[in-house]
Design goal:
With 351 residues, this protein is of the alpha+beta class. Helix content is 22%, strand content 27%. The strands form five sheets. Strands 1-5-4-7-3-8 form a six-stranded mixed beta sheet.
């Protein structure tokens, strides 16, 4: 087993984080900065600006912790709940292999060490490298931001770039791993196991399990909800009120995909039960009791999160995201978030 690389750990935990909503952590993603900062300076810049965050930022001598891994960072939009994110400070996606190996060699070792340590806490992260051209497809793995764009279909980023030395990173990873058990995916939670742990689902309606129309997952319907299973996300129950909105969006074949987390009941100061929320592969579905359900995702969803979610000044979503001219909009109880092709998101208040 290889020795731990030499580096200095700096605690710079900041406020830029999101709830994972019970999602499995299945990916460890690498990023470039597209700048020339040190790990400490980049972490402080993100904390102060509120514009971005990573769980870790590393350079060749330092690892700065920016977000506790029990929370999602602001790195990969809708993939944040399922991932841990590490950025190489001072790096660029266009840099050559020789630059990676001359200026970031120890940083690569630090990244591999960090991935191995986190996989001990989050066993659904497979210590399997899935670099370009992503031959393993959509799976639990270690990859980069470009995987999020190309394989998951989220965003437009291309880092860590085509010249990142995945072979060197993988060799470091293997040298740090002992025991073949670290390469094995734990068994998924089957539908009947989840149903036994969720008595609120009530009487089973589906006999056994049925195949989803996408040919990948399986499901079973119950009196008060359904359970959907996918080999990557595992099995998750969906309550009946959220199922109505999920059905309207064409179930797993629609923009939401499969559920990645258990649902939560959201309270307010004056009432203990106001609505339900549940994270899916393509966004987060919200439904206030007595109202239809709507989902938030992407840059508009990230802006709504920074405003305080449903407890913030905008309140609950009252529409899905929709096209408006050359941009996109989403309506909330107390205003509208508007995105235009420049990447900016602004608030339009009601009244």
């Amino acid at each position: 087993m290889a020795a731990k690389p030499t580096f200095r750990d700096v605690n710079l935990l900041g406020p830029n984080q999101s709830n994972r909503w019970g999602a499995r952590v299945i990916n460890f993603f690498l990023h470039t900065e597209e700048g020339s900062a040190t790990a400490e300076n980049l972490a402080r810049s993100g904390n102060n600006s509120g514009a971005f965050s990573y769980h870790y930022i590393v350079d060749d001598s330092t690892r700065a912790a920016m977000v506790n891994t029990d929370y999602g960072s602001w790195s990969v939009l809708d993939a944040n709940p399922q991932s841990i994110n590490l950025c190489f400070a001072g790096s660029r996606a266009a840099q050559s292999r020789s630059v990676w190996l001359s200026k970031f060699r120890n940083a690569i070792r630090i990244a591999a060490w960090t991935a191995v340590e986190d996989a001990k806490k989050y066993p659904y992260i497979r210590l399997v490298v899935n670099g370009r051209p992503y031959k393993l497809g959509r799976t639990a793995c270690i990859s980069d931001h470009n995987y999020v764009t190309v394989v998951l279909g989220i965003g437009t980023h291309t880092d860590v770039g085509p010249s990142f030395p995945w072979d060197v990173f993988e060799a470091d990873l293997k040298a740090l791993v002992t025991g073949a058990e670290n390469q094995v995916v734990p068994p998924v939670n089957k539908i009947n196991e989840i149903a036994a742990k969720s008595p609120w689902l009530g009487k089973r309606i589906t006999t056994g399990e049925a195949a989803c129309k996408d040919g990948v997952g399986r499901f079973a319907h119950f009196e008060n909800g359904s359970v959907y299973w996918h080999p990557t996300t595992g099995a998750r129950p969906i309550p009946k009120l959220l199922m109505e909105a999920y059905e309207a969006l064409d179930w797993e074949r629609g923009p939401l995909g499969y559920p990645t987390a258990f649902h939560s009941i959201l309270p307010i100061a004056t009432a203990p039960k106001v609505g339900d929320v549940q994270a899916f592969q393509g966004g987060v579905l919200y439904r206030r009791y007595g109202q239809p359900g709507f989902y938030v995702h992407g840059v508009i969803g990230a802006r709504w999160a920074r405003e305080g979610y449903e407890a913030g000044p905008l309140g609950w979503p009252i529409s899905d995201e929709y096209v408006d001219g050359t941009g996109r909009r989403q309506d909330f109880e107390n205003g509208t978030l508007v995105w235009d092709p420049s990447g900016a998101v602004k608030i339009e208040q009601k009244g």
